[in-house]
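Task card 7
Instruction: Convert sequence to structure tokens.
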Amino acid sequence: MCHFAKGLKNDITFVFSCPGKEEEEQNRPAAGKTGRNLEYILEELNNSSKLDWTRENITITNSWSQVEYKGLNGRTEATLDEILETKNLKRLYKEVKDTEELIICSGDNAKFAINEISNTNSLKAKVVNIPHFSLKKLNTLVTEDVDGEKIIAGKNRNDQKANNKKRLKVICEQIEEQLYD
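Output:
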């Protein structure tokens, strides 16, 4: 199932938008670049939090369970109407309802779906919203590092990797701030 992986613990659930080509090929959620970004964030948070941020212990799901990518169906996201369909929200609720500590919504579709669920169902966990892990979103929405310094466009691959890590550290900080808020 490339849209959902139940963690060994019920502490943390990440909700992404939808599975894409990498997830379909690897038959697991949060694969490819999203998976690498997730691994980096988990490692950073595992060093600074009382929760267990290892991939095998967290639940990973998507606001939309169907695979979406340009080469398959000409788009990379489901529509908001599709996300908010009753059948889809019931499926997502079943996947997140046992989360005890934290539900992290990566991107607008995840945020809208979980907000809709929490309007009609009681969730035990605190909900945290962060930008989508795609490079385009990170580059657009995270323009300063954790020290408030402007992130300048990378000239080469090493600069780009360093900038990505700076942006992901900002995401880690956003998660921690909302977690302990």
